Amino acid sequence: MVTILGIRHHGVGSAKNVLAMLEKLSPDIVLVEGPPELDNVVSWIGNKTLKPPVSVLGYNINNPKQATFYPFSEFSPEWQAVLYANTKQIPVRMLDLPLAISYQLDLDKEQERQKTEAEKEQTRIEQNEEEQDKEKQSKEELTAEITEQFLAIPRKEPIAYFSELAGYTDSELWWEHQFEQKYQASNPEDHFDSIMLMMENLREAQISSSLEAENVFREAYMREIIRKAQNEFFTNIVVICGAWHAPVLRDLESTAKGDTKILKSLPKTKIKIGTTWVPWTNARLSMFSGYGAGITSPGWYRHLWKYPEDKGIRWLTKVARLFRNKKMDISTAHVIETFRLAESLAALRNLSRAGLYEMTEATLSVMCMGDAILLELVRQELIVANVMGKVPRELPKHPLQENFEEISRKLRLPLTAERKDFELDLRKELDLNRSIFLYRLEAMDIPWGKRMYARSKGTFKEAWQLKWEPEMLIDLIEKSIWGNGVEIAATTYLLDKAQKTQSIAELAVLIQQAIPAELFVGIEKLLFKLNEIASISADIAELMKTVVPLASVSRYGNVRKTDLSTINSLVEGFITRISIGLANACYGLDEENSTQMFENIKQVNEAVRLLETDTLTQVWHKALFELLDKQGVHPIITGCTCRLLFDVKQLDEQQTAKQFGLALSTGQSAIYSAGWLEGFLKGSSMILLLDNVLWNLLYKWVAELQGDSFIELLPILRRTFSKFEVGERRQLGEKAKKGVATANVVVEDHEEAKNFRVERTEGVLNTIAELLGIN
């Protein structure tokens, strides 16, 4: 005897009826929808340390990106069926198309698509232009016609036909009211007979589902597994499957020959499948899983599973308790009135009992007083309920995954679905090890930790935000080819990336990742390759991009007590080479490349400032002076150079005013003057607010522009001034209203400045330096 039970995945009523039928039938084998590769892992269901929500992860061992999740909740009919079978020690098998074949079909489709595109591309190349135009026009007309016909066909899920007849716009809500809420413990047969009859009618009417092509293979394989169980002399077989498949699994004899042909057409594959359990979350139960099922209210369903007799009072009490914990005044009267309103809504809608929709609408009206923001709190905390499951530690795992979890436990970094913020003090051993671990994961492109802004000053402070996503386990398994431990895998992965690049800038970024991760073997090899490539590179622009990450490591790496002598030597050599070749590298560049070079110059200047080395600073400033007087350099670059030298007091106000005046003189073209001004002012306008000499030069230059020249330069001027802060622009506007400004005020001439005693500040400054940790 074969009994087919059609269910809704994650359906509470389905789970209760499945249990009732299993108790009544006492089968000798249970077949549950799911790929056969899951047979080994479902034996863990019933283990006390495996707590739903959890999911089976099935993946291609040779290509872990090809992976599928099969989530289970406590109220999933499949979970309860397997739990019943394991408890009763009854054989249980999964019933679906193997994952290996599904993945092979996907690969074949992708190869066929690429082949078709290549053939089309080759055809287009061989045809002449006239034929291409005719073909393009014909295809466009045909595509438009097909699109119009396709859009005219109504596309909806099969059960929507029944739900619309009942007056529902939401087919899932109709199913819930008809089959999930109306549970009758004494008569589960009627429940499954009704579902079977409905699906039979839909299939007889040839109403197809959205996955019909795939279902042909799946259902043929399902029937084959049932026949195999019969041939093994199991006489009382219970099959739990999605309701849509139920009718076609009953006819096993007449479909045997056809199934044999279908199964022979399936591709042969050598794909090996790995499976394991992973923690899941309620929020992710609403996402599509391997069999395309999802729910949006797992917290509510869990409540119904735990308290089947509750008509709403217990649920509304939870809502009231939630609001009270948030310091809101909710009385018993609120709960009573909310329940009465929910019951009234259910009666108006001809429902046997109030469901989630009625409870939610009543809560919004009474407890939330119409405030949808408060209702969102109920949705997050109760309706969805952000719960994460647990899996046993003793589960078979990849060595890398096992090492990752062991380190996480040792460092007290929990794998949770909630965002956890950590502020690390690198002077403490635990926090330093946490930082190293997170940087190693970041080096492997596993984004568990996200670096945040640390509120405390000082280079010994770091802030991280952690949020675990199940997909990160796929990334971790994928990286297992690089090593069995996090440290060796991160090192090998970085070295492999380094092997594939000849870019100095990319190598510098890899070194910047390796230093805080303390991948010492990798650092040594990365530095060797960087030095090797840099020694033969003549690309000044690429060297400039390399300096900033290396200077940052050189300046702040000593917090981790890392030997930085090699990096310091490299940085010094790079800056020296950049300084020598800077002027020639800037010669003859157009506006676009000059703008990019402008950014590179600013970055190198910042790196020199970070290093605080007198020799390098002098060499760099000499290069900037050479660039300032170089002919054939774009004015954006010379304007930027003048500003940098002024900021570090290598040019005084008088010298800067001279450069400013030369750039804005009538002898220069208006385009040249505008470009120079853009380079000089890019990033900050404070110099114009504070220096009246420069302001007057700019004011007079703009005032003397001819009408045509002004219109031509207006876009450049607007682009320059639009990047200033709103407050700065407002102050510049106020200053422009006053016209030419008076001479600069010299602070030293004030009476207060004359009486200022510098020696009295020394004690205060020393104390402040100690508090800020400044050496």
Automatic annotation (TrEMBL):
InterPro entries attached to this UniProt entry: DUF5682, LolB
Region feature Disordered, mapped onto this chain: 112-140
Pfam families cross-referenced by the UniProt entry: DUF5682
Name of the protein: DUF5682 family protein
Organism classification: Bacteria, Pseudomonadati, Bacteroidota, Cytophagia, Cytophagales
